[in-house]
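Subject: sequence -> structure tokens, single chain

Hey, anyone have a minute? Need the predicted structure for the following. Not urgent.
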Amino acid sequence: MPRRQLSAAPLTPANFRALATYRYALRRFLHFSTEAARAAGLTQQQYQVLLAIKAAPRNKFLTIGEVAEQMQLRHHSAVGLVDRLVHRGWLRRVADTADGRRVQVRLTVSGEKVLIKLAAAHRDELRRLSPEFIRSLQSLDAD
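Reply:
Had a minute. Here:
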């Protein structure tokens, strides 16, 4: 990933407060997400994989390599993550009809059910926290 050039603009006390507020809201959301996934029998990463697969464009199925990219993992780590989801019955592997060397991963019916419940809870929590996120981001521009 290319490095971004640091801004020369000095940070104000309000900028620091905005950054701290944003990070706090983000940590609260991530904590919620971890606990919600755990209550559904998944890890946070497993939920994210199911979500990434469901979010793929219509009639597009992710490969293990694409799962690795979405999750920012090495290929072998994505394989292990997918293996565990397949073992739990939430994903299945399907040979790519266009290229038999590639394997696509798809949600199963039970994977879709658990994802729908978790995604709805995440949407509701984001709706609850969004005013705090928006205020903190907007205050970064106010100097």
